[in-house]
Amino acid sequence: MSYTDQVVQSIRKNLEQFTKQADVLEVGTVIEVGDGIARMTGLDNCQAQEMLSFENGALGLALNLEAETVSAIVLGEYKGISEGMTVKRTGKIMSVPVGDALIGRVVDALGQPIDGKGDLATQEFYPVERIAPGVMSREPVNKPLITGIKAIDALIPVGRGQRELIIGDRQTGKTAIAIDTILNQKDQDVICVYVAVGQKESKVARIVAKLQEEGAMGYTIVVSAGASEPAPMSYLAPYTGVTMAEFFADKGKDVLVIYDDLTKQAWAYREMSLLLRRPPGREAYPGDVFYLHSRLLERACNLNTKNGGGSITALPIIETQAGDISAYVPTNVISITDGQIFLETSLFYKGIRPALNVGLSVSRVGGAAQTKPMKKVAGSLKLALAQFRELEAFAQFSSDLDPDTKKQIDRGQRLTELLKQPQYSPMPAEEQVLSIYAASNGYFDAIDLKEVKAAEESLIKFARKAKSALLDKLRAGEWSDDIQNELKDTCEQYAK
Amino acid sequence: MPKLIPIQYAKILYHLTAECDDRNIDAAVDRFMRYLRENQALSKLDYILDAFVTYAKERQGIVSLRITSARELRPAFIEQMARRVSDKAETEVAVDPLLIGGLVIQHGNSIIDASVKHQLDKLRRAL
User: Where are the alpha helices (H) located in A68-167, listed in sequence order?
Assistant: First the structure.
């Protein structure tokens, strides 16, 4: 049968199955519209967060149910809506498409594709607002999420199911850490969702291009509510992202969700709430700005085996002004997350990139999210760095100090040098273990500070060639005295 | 506090005058007009009166229907449709050829859409 015949036959079948029925629609009339908010009378049985349909094709989300009126935010072009227009109830609570078809796509906050690659072949819709899994469906975080960044994986380890905040001023490398983490999930069986909230469209385009270049789009979904889109889209985008992640987590997969950034979501929510005439509170934020972030971040979880064993790890990003982490929104989110990665501008300009402030950064999951080998080598690293920080002020007088202090300073300087890492070069966990072991045990002490990075590189090259079996064992998380001796041998062989 | 909308003023007027007998009605209306002026809502009087008529009819059980059809309908047929919704029904009839066939009945805030245009729209979306 020719193609046209097939199409005609399937249309005919659809027509026969199509039942004719009069529909009862509930409607309202717009009485006021402006600034992305529409106010309507009628809609007597409208539910909270229900999607409404305007005559110009735009959708609305009913947020304020008042005595005689309903106020809704317009998700789309509100300029085509005029007073007196009819608004229909859709009967559906705000939902977005979810499914495997989303992987590799760039969508907006409503789940509509914006990458020009055609319609999504998804079948299911999940509601955007969902109660987070309860205590009994969770289990403690026990598997590591390797970011590929030495400083983080060794000192501030992140586990699957944890919420780790990336906080810092503008231009300190917050997005860079997020993207490097995505790039490192290549063979880790983790699906990534990158939510761009209120970002410049050019920045999002660059990020997508980079992810595509490195082959990361094969396991990543990008949700983008750009700076040129109305505020309600920025408000919705993080919830859309976590909803899409929940589809995979419910099936037992591990998902990483990055919210870049939540500060802009708070601004968008403040804008919306003020226009909806909700009373402003501190810094003009609405009273429920904490709930805005807490209900989003609580959906990150590590599910127990009875519920599938999947997990959602959240890496929210918050931008501070002038390093003030005690402002309203930053303190809110710090109290919600299980730790923070604190990036400082002064460190950035000193050349320490990633500009991690190891003293103020913390991971409340800590060692439970590290493999045995990493735990062993990281312990000594932390101590050495802490001691170095105490003595850092004396580094200028190194020639006048006693040999022990000088040794500590030299060791600390080399460790700091080693923790520097260029962008887009995540390092696998086993190579990190080798590098930190070598540095902590003094194998780089004799090398000039400027040559340390090159030395690390050649040590790793050597190990990849000659000791790949050891690297495999480390990757699998094994640790024993034998393995420790093998590490020692590797370093000694290299030193020769 | 958000400004009151016409339907809210209409409800106030209705409840103010509903229990009044002929003597007090003038005083009640007078009070209402002064209330409008206090709230600078006199400009909305036309809308308030429209809403008042609709609301009063509703309260007295008279159902207002707006029937839009694709072609002229016989008055007897319209009567029949109105009776099916309620005994005390007032109908407003309009003709919209764009509906192609069938009719649309608007009853307060719900619409019963039995037009061919609507069916075709649904069919287009289903395909």
Answer: 150-155
Residues of B in contact with A277 (CB under 8 A): 2
Q: pLDDT band at residue A492, thresholds of 50, 70 and 90?
A: confident
Which of B3, B5, B58 to mutate: most A Cβ within 10 Å? B5
A400 pLDDT band, cuts 50/70/90, is confident
Q: What would the pLDDT profile of A161-202 be if each residue is shown by its tens digit?
A: 999 999 999 999 999 999 999 999 998 999 999 999 999 999
Residue ending a domain, choose from B43, B59, B75:
B59
Write the CA distances from B3 to A82, A295, B9, B41, integer angstroms.
19, 33, 10, 9
For A22, which of B5, B114, B127 is closest by C-beta distance? B114
Question: B 83-112 residues with CB below 8 A of A?
Answer: 106, 109-112
- The count of structural domains within chain B is 2
Is 70 exceeded by the pLDDT of residue A19? Answer: no
Say if residue B16 is in the same domain as residue B38.
yes
Shared domain for B88 and B106, answered yes or no, is yes
Residues 6+ apart with CB under 8 A from A379: none
Instruction: Measure B19 CA to nearest chain A CA, in Å.
Output: 23
Dist CA B7 CA A44 (whole Å): 14
Which residues from chain A sit within 8 angstroms of residue B2, using beta carbons? 66, 277
Is the model's pLDDT at B125 over the cut of 80?
Answer: no
Confidence of residue B1 (pLDDT cuts 50, 70, 90): low
Average pLDDT over residues A221-225: 97
Residue B1 lies in a domain: no
**Domain check: are B39 and B77 in the same one?**
no
Instruction: Mark whether B31 and B69 lie in a shared domain.
Output: no
Q: Do B8 and A68 touch (CB under 8 A)?
A: yes
How many Å lie between the alpha carbon of B26 and the closest alpha carbon of chain A?
28
Tell me which residue in B2, B5, B119 faces A20 most closely, judged by beta carbons.
B119
Residue B91, min C-alpha distance to chain A (Å):
18
Q: Three-state DSSP class for A164?
A: coil
Q: Using pLDDT thresholds of 50, 70 and 90, give the confidence band for residue A326.
A: very high
A83 touches chain B (CB under 8 A): no
pLDDT of the residue at A168:
95
CB contact under 8 A, A22 and B110: no
Look at residues A429, A480, A432 and name the one whose alpha carbon lies nearest to residue A459. Answer: A432
Cβ of B54 under 8 Å from any chain A Cβ?
no
The answer to whether B125 faces chain A, any CB pair under 8 Å, is no
Q: Is residue B116 one of the residues assigned to a domain?
A: yes
Contacts of residue B5 in chain A, CB cutoff 8 Å?
Answer: 31, 41, 68-69
Do B75 and B48 lie in one domain? The reply is no
Q: What range does the domain containing B32 cover? A: 6-59
Q: Specify whether B20 is located in the same domain as B42.
A: yes
- The beta strand positions in B24-122, using DSSP E, are 63-69, 89-95, 102-107, 110-115
Distance CA A190, CA A182 (A): 9
> Do B79 and B55 reside in the same domain of the chain?
no
Instruction: Please indicate, yes or no, if residue B33 is contained in any of the structural domains.
Output: yes
End-to-end C-alpha distance for chain B, whole angstroms: 47
Q: Are residues B27 and B41 in the same domain?
A: yes
Highest mean predicted confidence (pLDDT) among A255-259, A416-420, A466-470: A255-259
Residue B48 lies in a domain: yes
